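Journal club prep — side note

Before the paper discussion, L.F. wants everyone to see what a predicted structure for a comparable chain looks like in C-alpha cell form. Sequence:
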Amino acid sequence: MKYMSYGLPGPKSNPTILDEVKAVLHLAIPLAGAQLSQSATGFVDTVMMGLLGSQTIAAGGLGATCFTALLLISSAVVAAVSPLAAEAYGAGKPERVGQVARQGLWLAVALAIPLTWLLWNAALVLRLLGQAPETIALSQTYLQAIAWGLLPGLGFAVLRSFVAALSDARPIIVIMVGGTLLNIVTNYGLMFGIGILPQLGLAGLAWASTLSLWCMFLALVGYILNQPQLRAYGVFRHLHRFDPQIFGELIKIGIPMGVLSVVEVGLFAVTTVLMGQLGTVALAAHQIAIQTAAITFTIPSGIGLATTVQVGQLLGQGNFKRAKRAGLIGIALGCLFMSSMAVLFWTMPGSIVALYLDIHDPLNAEVVKLAKSLLLVAAMFQLADGIQVTATGALRGFKDTQIPMLIGLATYWGVGLTSGYVLGLTLGFGGVGLWWGLALGLAVAAILLTWRFWVKQPNRQADK
C-alpha cells in the first residue's frame, strides 16, 4: 500500500539540522495557526455576549468556561492518537495507522456520552457551586445547546491528530479558519435573528458554536475521504470493530495527558479566583496579562504538537538518535520564539496594555500600572512556558506521558500554586506575587521535563 510522505526524511537518509528544523516548521506553522484560530473563537464569543448585557456575559462566560474546559481536557485524552499513529506511520504500518484512528473515534464517543449528559444537566453542579439561580437558568440554555457540539469537537480532535501524524497539517488550519468565520457569522445571525434565522439570544451563540464544530468535523471527514492516499488508511472502514488492545494503549497514553490538562487548567483557574480575592483592579490586570500570554502560547503549543509527530515517526523508524535530535530541535524552537516574546513583553508592556485599555484615562491608572508589572513577570513566564510545552510534546512522541503528568502535578500545584499563594497572599506581594508563583512553577517544570527528555533511553528500539 502506498502511503503519504510529507516532509519526514527517510530512515536511510542523513538530513542536516536545517532539514529537521524545516520538517518541524512544516507541521508547526499550520498547527500553531489552528491553535490561534481556536483562541479567536473564544474571544469573539465573549465580545458577542457583551452585546447582550452584563448578566448575559456572566452566565454565558460561565457556560463557555465549563464547555471549553471539558472539551480541552477530553481532547487531550484523544490526542493520544497522534504519537501512536505517528510511530506506526514511521514504521511503515499503514494498517495500524488506520486502526489507531478508528479506536480514537471509539474513545471520542466513549468520552462524549457522559460529558454531554453532564453538560445537559450542569444546573445541578452549578447549584452546588453556589451560583445565582438566574445565572444558572441562563447558563443552562447555553450549555444544553452547545452540549451537542462536544461529540463533533472530539471527533475533529481525533481526525486532526490522525492527519497531523502523517505530516499533513495544511487542511487543519484551512478548516479551522473556515469554522471560525462561520461561527462569527452565525453568532450574530442566531443571536439577533437576522433574515430567516431565529432570534435565540445567548442560546444562539451556543448553537452557532455547535454548528461550527459539526461543520469542521464533517469537512475533515470529507477531506480524508476525497484524498486517495488518506482514504487508503481505511479510517472509516469497519468502524463497528472494537480493538481492545489498541483502545487500551490509547487509554494508557491519553489519561495522563488528560490529567495533565486538568492540572494546567486548574492552575490558571485557581490563580484567577485568588486574583479576584485581591479586588477588581488585580483581576482586570490579570485578565489582560493572561489573555496576552495565552495568545503567544499558541505558537509553542503548535511546535509541541509538531514535535510529538516528528519524534513519533522517527521512533517508528527505529531511529532513536534522530528522534532525540528532533525533540531537542522542537524544544529549541519553542525557546527561541518565546525568548523573542519575552523581549517584547519586557520592553513594550505599555503598548501591550494599550491594546486593551485607554492607558491615558486616569480611571484606568491602577489597572495599567499593575498590568505592566505582571507583563514584566510574564517575560520570564513566557520562556519557561515555551520550553515546558515543547518538552512535553517531545516526550509524548516517545509515548512518555505518566512521568510528565506527575511532574506537572508536583510543579504546577506543589511549586507554582503554593509559592504563588505564599508570595501573593501570605507575604503581601499581591498579584505580582501570584504571578511569580506561576513563573516559578513553570520554570521548574521546564527544567524537569527537559531533563527527562535529555536522559530518555531507547525502549526496544533499534538505533539506526
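L.F.'s comment for the group: The chain has 17 helices and no strands. Keep this in mind when we get to the figures.
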